[in-house]
Amino acid sequence: MVPLPLKTSFAVEKEVDPLYSGGPVSIANGLLATTLVSQVQVSELATGKRIIKLEGDEEVITALNLTSDGQYLITCSRSLLMRTYEIPSGKIIRQVKAHESPVISIETDSTSTLVATGGAEGTVKVWDIRGGFVTHNFKGHGGVISALRFYGRAGSRTWRLASGADDCKIRVWDLVSSKCLATLDNHSSVIRGLDFSDDGNTLISGSRDQVLNTWDLKKFKLKQSIPIYESLEAVGFLAAGTLSTDANLAYIGGEKNRIRIIDLDAKAEFAAEALVDQTTETTIQHIIYNAQDKTLCSVRSNQTILTHDLGSLELPIVRRIVGQFDEIIDCTYILDDTKIAIASNSEDVHLFEPLTGNVEVLSEHSDIVIAIDRDFSSNFLVTGSKDNTAKLWNLLTLECVMTFSGHTESLGAVALPRTPNDGALPDFVITGAQDRTLKCWDPATGGKRSKWTIKAHEKDINAIDVSPNDRLVASASQDRLCKLWDQDTGDVVAVLRGHKRGVWTVKFSSFEKVIATGSGDRSVKLWSLNDYTCTKTFEGHTNSVLNCLFLSSGQQIASAGGDGLVKVWTIRTGECETTLDNHEDRVWSLALKSDDQTLVSGGGDSVLNFWRDTTAEVRESAAKAREEVVEKEQTLSNYVQSSDWRNAIALALALDRPGKLLHLLTEVMTARQEPDSITGLHAVDDVLSSLSNAQLLRLLQRLRDWNTNAKTAPVAQSVLNVVLRAYGPDELVAIPGINTILDPLLAFGERHYGRMNALIQETYLVDYTLREMANGM
């Protein structure tokens, strides 16, 4: 059997990194703008694909808003600066100091021409986005501006702005006359949401006083006050015909972490979001309504953004965006490689879809999930948690079908069968925990009792794996041992000794009778399952090896380390073929797609990297490059034979052949076909005077080297003469790394100059001697 090609090169095909850390969010024209402390990321809402990441001014972003056409993004930070970015280029088109205190609220109008900002000092300003100047400056609030809303349409004569503050008052401003039309006072806490009806005659307001108010803007009086019994953070009108043909509906959201639809005429709840977890302290911070798509996007305090369909009274979640996965502890491909199950520093397991960026959640555990594993079909998933339980999930229905309780401490490792199963459930589940016991469960019995329980190790169990034929179970522990067990009886089969520190990971090969282990001693060891001896040790990591797996049909091993690196080793040679570096923290998890072409790594930096095997592409590119070099070398020889010095020197410089270039320049200077030329040929002078920055840098590096040798220094000095005459000081200084070249050139130039002066002085002595000899004769 011909061995498959080894993998020697990988490239990051997709990088899933944090996109939201909490704070303001804006959605417009299919774009999503999210904050990462002082940074802002703009992504495609439908796919999660990053468009641009804006670095900001290193101060926390306090407010941001996309214009409705998606062409501009306005951000405000604690530095008091308001920046206007052009999207998608990210170019800053304007930067001004907006207020005397941080901007807390920001809102753009429907025409994408105006932006309103509300400061902590109680001032509201309206700006012309393209002009960058203030059109209105409203004062009157006695506290922090907490809510803003425009009303107006292109061609309309009515333009208004409503503002709410923590003085519990709402002010309605006329943008045409620049006057305050009314002050609406009925709330007893900070105003958090405002919205105008389509006709502009009604204003709705929501506050943390748990009351929803509607106001008559013809009389500027309170129409009705509806007790909501929760602190509100977002309110708004729904377009007529949404969810109902005749009801006057509004959406609300707040501390109960549940979107509700209120019938304003009936003063009652009309519809509500279903299946909301009430056990956590998560709240709704913001709701963005898209009337065209008939969706509501809710921003939650747990850094998730949910898109709800307004086509159903249950407001089903059609898309979930997770702001960041926190520290990624474990991951595995599931459902025929269409999704990845991720265990992070959370009690939830996230099912991430790489193509769309959508996330589904498995929520049953009461503490952090430490380990996950899938079965052969990839339709079942087992999870182990710090709540001392393991759970078996049906991934087709997203339901927990069984809970395994029996361990007295947190679980650190779980495993499922590796062979196909005709039954409805996996044949067995293996769990290992900090209580140092290993348990085998039979799902057919309901998981009430374990099939067998063994005190397997003297310290915590870190990892478990099952052999390809399901006959053996391997356990790795902090006691520096890896043990093999009979899956059916629980009897110990072998003990693998050799690591000097705790063993973090263990993996069976699906192609050979070998097993790999990774340890805190920074090594990966390969063991034979025939005699249970260590056959090979791979060393190269500078920190603990935390995970490993086999790839290339068992010919190679990928290892992940606490040094933030992923290394790919060839078993036959023991050499590291390549090192993958795109993490800023330890790499805890690895997963391999079934086609053996994509390797996934997840780490403590909350980043999930998808590494695509580019070995074939790199080899093909290298072969083409070699062919091109051969062709150019032949062309260079042809130029030399025909004494075409101009093209020969240009090509030698392009090929980076310093020896050939020196030989050609020496030939030209020796022949000196054109005495009035610096190098001996005007054509060569012209070539040296018209180089790109990269070529000029390469030439100067060669001149620096040649100038250190007295034999080649004359050539270097002549070429340097051409360079200094052809290129100005500004051009030379702009070349990266020029200082490292000029200093040696100057030093050796002065040395050569001193040597020539000494030679000239010695010629005077020769003249004197000859003259004296002539006089004596």
Automatic annotation (TrEMBL):
<feature type="domain" description="U3 small nucleolar RNA-associated protein 13 C-terminal">
    <location>
        <begin position="633"/>
        <end position="773"/>
    </location>
</feature>
<dbReference type="GO" id="GO:0030686">
    <property type="term" value="C:90S preribosome"/>
</dbReference>
<dbReference type="InterPro" id="IPR036322">
    <property type="entry name" value="WD40_repeat_dom_sf"/>
</dbReference>
<feature type="repeat" description="WD">
    <location>
        <begin position="454"/>
        <end position="495"/>
    </location>
</feature>
<dbReference type="InterPro" id="IPR013934">
    <property type="entry name" value="Utp13_C"/>
</dbReference>
<feature type="repeat" description="WD">
    <location>
        <begin position="184"/>
        <end position="225"/>
    </location>
</feature>
<feature type="repeat" description="WD">
    <location>
        <begin position="138"/>
        <end position="183"/>
    </location>
</feature>
<dbReference type="Pfam" id="PF00400">
    <property type="entry name" value="WD40"/>
</dbReference>
<dbReference type="InterPro" id="IPR001680">
    <property type="entry name" value="WD40_rpt"/>
</dbReference>
<dbReference type="GO" id="GO:0032040">
    <property type="term" value="C:small-subunit processome"/>
</dbReference>
<feature type="repeat" description="WD">
    <location>
        <begin position="496"/>
        <end position="537"/>
    </location>
</feature>
<keyword id="KW-0539">Nucleus</keyword>
<keyword id="KW-0677">Repeat</keyword>
<feature type="repeat" description="WD">
    <location>
        <begin position="362"/>
        <end position="403"/>
    </location>
</feature>
<feature type="repeat" description="WD">
    <location>
        <begin position="96"/>
        <end position="137"/>
    </location>
</feature>
<dbReference type="InterPro" id="IPR019775">
    <property type="entry name" value="WD40_repeat_CS"/>
</dbReference>
<dbReference type="GO" id="GO:0000480">
    <property type="term" value="P:endonucleolytic cleavage in 5'-ETS of tricistronic rRNA transcript (SSU-rRNA, 5.8S rRNA, LSU-rRNA)"/>
</dbReference>
<dbReference type="GO" id="GO:0000472">
    <property type="term" value="P:endonucleolytic cleavage to generate mature 5'-end of SSU-rRNA from (SSU-rRNA, 5.8S rRNA, LSU-rRNA)"/>
</dbReference>
<protein>
    <submittedName>
        <fullName>U3 snoRNP-associated protein Utp13</fullName>
    </submittedName>
</protein>
<feature type="repeat" description="WD">
    <location>
        <begin position="538"/>
        <end position="579"/>
    </location>
</feature>
<keyword id="KW-0853">WD repeat</keyword>
<dbReference type="GO" id="GO:0034511">
    <property type="term" value="F:U3 snoRNA binding"/>
</dbReference>
<dbReference type="Pfam" id="PF08625">
    <property type="entry name" value="Utp13"/>
</dbReference>
<dbReference type="InterPro" id="IPR020472">
    <property type="entry name" value="WD40_PAC1"/>
</dbReference>
<dbReference type="InterPro" id="IPR015943">
    <property type="entry name" value="WD40/YVTN_repeat-like_dom_sf"/>
</dbReference>
<feature type="repeat" description="WD">
    <location>
        <begin position="580"/>
        <end position="621"/>
    </location>
</feature>
